[in-house]
Give the backbone structure.
Amino acid sequence: MSLQEELRKLSEKIKQYRDEARVQMHLAKEDVKDEWDDLEQDWERFRNRLDQVMHDAEETSQEARQTAQKLGEDLRDGYRNIRNKLK
């Protein structure tokens, strides 16, 4: 699987976790809401970086790709944690 495919799949998984958590946010405690707000800022940075990496895939350095992937994995884990806290 290419890096672009991996990043696209990671982005889709993040979006799934994010959507699931958003549905349950109205029941959340304040500490979870604060965690959500922090992740939303990271989500915007990730989307911008991912768009850049996908657009410039051939010219993007390995370091930039790895940075985007790491940020995506951290976001996925963060949204998954929120989702699990809300179950």
